[in-house]
Specification:
By secondary structure, the chain is of the alpha/beta class. The protein is 33% helix and 25% strand. The protein has one domain (2-266): Nucleoside phosphorylase domain (Rossmann fold, 3-Layer(aba) Sandwich), CATH 3.40.50.1580. The two termini are 28 Å apart. It has a 5-stranded mixed barrel, surrounded by 4 helices. Bound molecules: hypoxanthine.
Length: 267
């Protein structure tokens, strides 16, 4: 951690970000449009490189609407074969850099029958179905406690800000529970049926590890999903493909980007 922080601080001249953002599929452009300076993950000691297509792999620093922001342009996923601890390391780095609020974004399949592709959903809570937890292993009491409370990871005050911003912009928001599966295969219709029965509204392969670690180390979390497709077996769903996910996130990105900008201004 010391090596990582020394390297970043030397590159950023002591820039202290208060807001962190992890940009999901289709949102990478937001970091291109707001980039004061950037560091490739491949240069940063102990960082993983980004490998998923469409994800760039840089830490981008910018002042947006007067707020100091650090963005992950591209994230690592559990399904790539990295450990939960590895994929969440950047969240601990953000904490050490000074981040107080983390905005997590992703693409997700719609489980709730009232959702349609291109909807934006505020994450109100999650179900961790990944079969692993990023906090397993020795605990660093300096970062957080052994058994962290998770009663309100996705802070109501931040959800209220997002709702107000969406209203100002005339954007309709859904709210719901995000169900995380490990991937990389999409879910079966039986799994999606189960997810719906146990309370899920959307399903995806990211976000939950980062949210658990952020909450653990005292960072407030706001989560936003772009519903990119109907989940497997949901009435009207087609055969799932990454191409559909990319197509929808591309179509939604300008709305998503303006919402993000408005939220940063109002947090
Ligand atoms: N399932 C899991 N992850 C996803 C999906 C889905 O349907 N859509 C986008 N990411």
């Amino acid at each position: 951690m010391e090596d990582t922080l020394n390297f970043i601080n030397q590159k950023t001249n002591g820039f202290v970000p208060e807001i962190g953002i992890i940009l999901g599929s289709g949102l990478g452009e937001f970091a291109d449009e707001h980039c004061d300076f950037a560091i490739n993950y491949s240069e940063i000691p102990n960082f993983l490189k980004s490998t998923v297509q469409g994800h760039k792999g840089r830490l981008v620093f910018a002042e947006i609407s007067g707020r100091k922001v650090v963005m992950m342009q591209g994230r690592n996923h559990f399904y790539e074969g990295h450990s939960m601890q590895e994929i969440t390391y950047p969240v601990k780095v953000m904490k050490k850099l000074g981040v107080k609020t983390l905005i997590l974004t992703n693409a997700a399949g719609g489980v709730n029958k009232n959702f349609k592709p291109s909807d934006l959903m505020i994450i109100t809570d999650h179900i961790n179905y990944m079969g692993a937890n990023p906090l397993i292993g020795p605990n660093d009491l300096e970062l957080g406690e052994r058994f962290p409370d998770m009663s309100e990871i996705y802070k109501k005050e931040l959800i209220a800000v997002a709702d107000r911003c969406a209203e100002n912009l005339g954007i309709k928001l859904q709210h719901g529970v995000y169900f995380a599966s490990s991937g990389p295969s999409y879910e079966t219709p039986a799994e999606i049926k189960m997810a719906g029965i146990i309370g899920a509204d959307a399903v995806g392969m990211s976000t939950v590890p980062e949210a658990i670690v952020a909450n653990y180390c005292g960072i407030k979390v706001l989560g936003i999903s772009c519903i990119s497709n109907l989940a497997a077996g949901v009435e009207g769903a087609q055969k799932l493909s990454h191409a559909e996910v990319i197509e929808t996130t591309n179509a939604v990105k300008s709305r998503f980007k303006s919402l993000l900008q408005e939220i940063i201004k109002n947090i």
